[in-house]
């Protein structure tokens, strides 16, 4: 059977992708950001997943405001890096895992979560920046990402957006789906977006280190309580785009302890301000079974 070996959480700030693509990662402004991922790159090299289930949000790139799925699962064989206005990022095509994605869709929908099935979709910085942070730069033409990726897009852009509680329950359904797949695959689940950020209006640039870190503490130690955080708290405390953090609760809900198993090990935790106008948060939790 397939199993979830670990969950990875990271911000997906587009300027991080631009810094990598433009060869600026060693500059004094960016060096501390990339330093925070050095351990992670080594860790994932030593414990490579067979598939990554990558929870992110589309930023009005693949889905316009004409059509906004709350939860969308990418079932295609491949996904092109999107052109977000400056041409596509120079990163490899993202290969999917249609068989596992179809199985997860079947299982999760039968488990009463309504998913949108996506058979063609370009993927934006929400998905490609986390891949670059964890795997480094890859040749866009001759290179490849190390494993297939199942994109899972969550609407956190246009209200109403799903609650943290709903996301946490969905993570549990995704774990049941993965653990019922009849092939011995090692799957990682990633949650991306956040942390503090407000991109527009009078509060643009809002950073709340204390709230971000208390939220991280609770995500690790008491995820069910963390999942009860109301929307208004994210927006008030972490800025309007801080709401992206509900996606981390999908990954956390898929961990073994939530279903009565052993607590995960915190392999790595990192927090840094600033990157662009935002805080960067990163966490790796490893399952212990
Ligand atoms: C920015 C955009 C994002 O989608 C995000 O998650 C963080 C920062 C930005 O435009 O700076
Ligand atoms: Fe974002």
Automatic annotation (TrEMBL):
<dbReference type="GO" id="GO:0016702">
    <property type="term" value="F:oxidoreductase activity, acting on single donors with incorporation of molecular oxygen, incorporation of two atoms of oxygen"/>
</dbReference>
<dbReference type="Pfam" id="PF02900">
    <property type="entry name" value="LigB"/>
</dbReference>
<protein>
    <submittedName>
        <fullName>Protocatechuate 3,4-dioxygenase</fullName>
    </submittedName>
</protein>
<feature type="domain" description="Extradiol ring-cleavage dioxygenase class III enzyme subunit B">
    <location>
        <begin position="8"/>
        <end position="280"/>
    </location>
</feature>
<dbReference type="GO" id="GO:0008198">
    <property type="term" value="F:ferrous iron binding"/>
</dbReference>
<dbReference type="InterPro" id="IPR004183">
    <property type="entry name" value="Xdiol_dOase_suB"/>
</dbReference>
């Amino acid at each position: 059977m397939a199993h979830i070996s670990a969950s990875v959480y990271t911000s997906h700030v587009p300027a991080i992708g631009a810094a990598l693509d433009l060869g600026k990662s060693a500059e004094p402004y960016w060096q501390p950001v990339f330093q925070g991922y050095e351990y992670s790159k080594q860790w994932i090299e030593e414990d490579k997943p067979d598939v990554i289930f990558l929870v992110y949000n589309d930023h009005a790139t693949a889905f316009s405001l004409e059509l906004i799925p709350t939860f969308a699962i990418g079932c295609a064989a491949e996904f092109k890096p999107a052109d977000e206005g400056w041409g596509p990022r120079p990163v490899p095509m993202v290969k999917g895992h249609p068989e596992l994605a179809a199985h997860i869709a079947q299982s999760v929908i039968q488990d009463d979560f309504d998913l949108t099935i996506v058979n063609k979709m370009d993927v934006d910085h929400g998905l490609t920046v986390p891949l670059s942070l964890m795997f480094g730069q890859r040749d866009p033409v001759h290179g490849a990402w190390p494993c297939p990726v199942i994109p899972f897009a969550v609407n956190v852009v246009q209200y109403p957006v799903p609650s943290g509680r709903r996301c946490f329950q969905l993570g549990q359904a995704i774990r049941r789906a993965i653990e019922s797949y009849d092939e011995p695959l090692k799957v990682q689940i990633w949650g991306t977006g956040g942390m503090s950020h407000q991109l527009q209006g009078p509060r643009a640039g809002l950073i709340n280190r204390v709230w971000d870190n208390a939220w991280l503490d609770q995500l690790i130690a008491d995820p069910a309580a963390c999942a009860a955080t109301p929307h208004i708290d994210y927006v008030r405390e972490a800025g309007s785009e801080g709401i992206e953090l509900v996606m981390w609760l999908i990954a956390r809900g898929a961990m073994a302890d939530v279903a009565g198993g052993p607590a995960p090990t915190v392999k790595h935790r990192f927090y840094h301000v600033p990157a662009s106008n935002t805080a960067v948060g990163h966490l790796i939790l490893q399952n212990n079974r």
